[in-house]
Amino acid sequence: MGQRVRVEEKGRDRYERLLGYVWVEGDGGERLWNMRLLEEGLAVYNDFGNPGRYAERTRAAAEQAMLAGVGLWSACELGERPTVAPTRSVGAGCPQGCVSQPGPSCSIKGNVNTSRDTKIYHVEGESSSYGRVNMKEAEGDLWFCTRAEAEANGFRAPRQ
What domains lie within the chain, and their CATH numbers? Predict the structure, then answer.
């Protein structure tokens, strides 16, 4: 109560929604409120196609909360938590899956369908569903560089 709040405009996403960062002044100076929500597992990271200047920090905070099972992630059983790995550089591969596409050579989409409890990977140019698959990291969707990486993480090829 009685704290100063500042909003730093981030721009708009592809749906023209206004995005921003919220800063709250406290004893130790300003703190990024968005970061606190992510660290405590009270929010899900999504850059809505507009990563912004704090994307690496906020994505990392969200991944740590997910892996630690705090906040909303505490409802997941240990074996159900999504496999999360930081984005790797192009050519490094994604053995555990990457939450964002590391480069054009890693274009295999690992899609988790929570309602059907399935994990299916889609290869560009081979899967008829590839273009319709919207990657949702909050649901455990991951990018892979090879079929072997996807299969090692429990994803299967689509049935034709």
Answer: 5-77 (2.40.50.90), 82-152 (no CATH)
